Amino acid sequence: MPFPPLVEPVAALSDAERARTARHRALGGFGELAQRRLAGAHVALVGAGGLGSPAILALAAAGVGRLTVIDDDAVELSNLQRQVLHRVADVGTPKALSAARAAAELSPQTRVDAVRERLHAGNARELLAGADLVLDGSDTFDTRVAVAAACEDLGAPLVWGVVQEFHAQVTVFWSRPPAGASPVRLGDLYPSGSAGEVPTCAEVGVLGALCLQVGALMAQQAIALITGVGEPLLGRLVLLDGLRMTQREVPLRASAADRGAGTEHPAVAGPPPAAGEEPRAIRPGDLRAALATADAPLLVDVRGADERATDPAPAPSLHVPLDALLADPGAVATAAAGRDIVTLCRSGVRSRTAALALRAAGAPAATLAGGIDAWRSERAAEVPA
């Protein structure tokens, strides 16, 4: 459902801004009032890269009054395949300054504060304070955790998107949403320690056009929250598949503390879930113990064929690439024939997406915390020097 507008409108738009945003004001249910709310809004964006680039362009073009762009990197030639904010002439320029230039060229009345700092747990709250909402397009999970913690503390809504290879996720986290809505936090999607070591796009690649799509969706969510026009994704996780050109959603709600603790084997996924129930993240040692039992779970490797060929799974497993699993999770459940399912990928990110889809389809599924990398690291630590 739509939420109350997040931002009070400015008193009036300039004649130039009214002309520039005329097509917004012509939208039924949007009009000049929503446009004046955009003019009064302050949005902080963490990262001016693959996701931040289209989001910054979209929000400046939409007429957001103030953007704070936080990024400590400089533009590199390899960025330009997806970071469409920047140009060849910007190579070597700080991304935050390039963002300020591009936004000013689109919307002269938008104020852009370029912050050339690396956001971390120690400065996140200070850098994000005062923003009406935050968009996170950062490139490390540690940064994302710091952003989410600061937003929870500040009570600010967090529009969250992530892209890896051909797949993406978009949602909204908010620790203090309007009355009648339940809080949802990053920890409800990725409990502490479950994400593992996330590979970079330099290691596994990323589809540039998908970054544009996700950045635009994030900007749309910001506009919906600012104006009260449209339904934010709080409580819903959108999954995008750039290979099959599909977009679907699964419910996302706050995880119950210690769900099932002490009542089941640590590697057992449990009974078919209620709508929106989160998959468990199984530690490597617990999974090894479960695989030695008579009712061992079915392992489902969701990596690509090339990855699996060069880096075999650590135990016998069913190979179902993530895009194929998301297209038909029921087929995987049928193949399991009543066994619990544990999904695998390199670092735990794609496997958690797969487990979410299987849980939403009613299948008992968990994910290997930290992925195959964590499995191997733990085994190496067990071997005497």
Secondary structure: number of strands: 13
**Low-pLDDT regions:** 257-276
Q: In sequence order, what are the helices and strands, one letter per element?
A: HHHEHEHEHEHEEHHHEEEHEHEHHEHEH
Strand content: 15-25%
CATH homologous superfamily designation of the largest domain: NAD(P)-binding Rossmann-like Domain
When the domains are counted, the total is 2
CATH class of the largest domain: Alpha Beta
Please compute the radius of gyration using only Cα atoms: 22 Å
- SS element count, helices: 16
Gap between N and C termini, in Å?
58 Å
**Which geometry do the CA atoms define?**
globular
- Could you give a short account of the major beta sheet? 8 strands, mixed
Helices, strands, pairings?
Elements: H1 15-20, H2 22-25, H3 31-39, E1 42-46, H4 52-62, E2 66-70, H5 95-106, E3 111-115, H6 124-128, E4 133-136, H7 141-154, E5 158-164, E6 167-173, H8 186-189, H9 201-204, H10 208-227, E7 236-241, E8 246-251, E9 280-282, H11 284-291, E10 298-301, H12 305-310, E11 318-319, H13 322-327, H14 329-336, E12 341-344, H15 349-360, E13 365-368, H16 371-382
Helix pairs in contact: 4-5, 4-10
GO molecular function: tRNA threonylcarbamoyladenosine dehydratase; ubiquitin-like modifier activating enzyme activity
GO biological process, one term: cyclic threonylcarbamoyladenosine biosynthetic process
Pfam families: Rhodanese, ThiF
